[in-house]
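Aspartate carbamoyltransferase: structure tokens wanted.
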Amino acid sequence: MQHLIKTSDFTKDEILNIYDDAKMFLDMESSEVLKGKLIVTLFFENSTRTRSAFEIAAKRLGAEVVSLDVGTSSRSKGETIFDTVMNINAMGPDAIIIRHSDCGLPGSLVDYVDCPVINAGDGKNAHPTQALLDLFTIMEHFDGETQGKRIAIVGDVKTSRVAGSNMKLLPRFGIDVCFVAPECFKAETDEFKQYDNISKVIDNIDIVMSLRTQLERHHEVYFQSLNEYAKDYCITKETFGNRDLLLLHPGPVNRNVDISDEMLLDPRCKVLRQVKNGVAVRMAVLKKLVLQ
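Answer:
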């Protein structure tokens, strides 16, 4: 049985096959590929975009979706997450989609279930479907020619599970990754080049991925306000100038902190395209794992 806990769970060929299906699903027409199947979503962290994308993806494929309200679940009565998942598994779902604040938790559940587990984000560790839709959007923009492309991931890299998954996935497809962040937000790795200002790399890249500043994940106060951070790291028209660049963001966007209002309307910004692609890619992932 195959699960999706991290992007390396899929080979390059499997990812390309998923993208072939995703291209077909981009019309957002409903299908009955998963008719009669039951998908359970289990989100222990707040989520609008990822949760709704998974649920819409499942329903577009004809599956039934049960979204459990973990705030009123048996966990509030002292039940462990492992017991919760084993009880759900006993009810015979065809896949369980889980988001949790603990790094590694989704992967620890695979021995307790008889169906695929899909990681919808675990702490600051990984967010595999976000990385898959990001790469899909990049490949779509560059007509599949990703070899030698260069991306700067800008912002709170240290706590970003999106950055964590993309730094592992994108190089597999020939994309050179670097990070732009203040010292306090830099990635804890020596594998990639890191800069403190985007001006140092803007003329040598093809893609900018801005990240949300996740102050809730930090235990120290590094900036007095988001506006202070934005002075150096908000992506604006002045940042891009007339350069032919692709702008991405996993959402939700802190307007005028991550990306300016004006830049969000710029045709080079593909944030909403990522959202649409995210449904199609998740449809393809569900089809692959549920019908394996």
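The CA atoms of residues 110 and 117 lie 6 Å apart. The first helix runs from residue 12 to 25.

Cheers.
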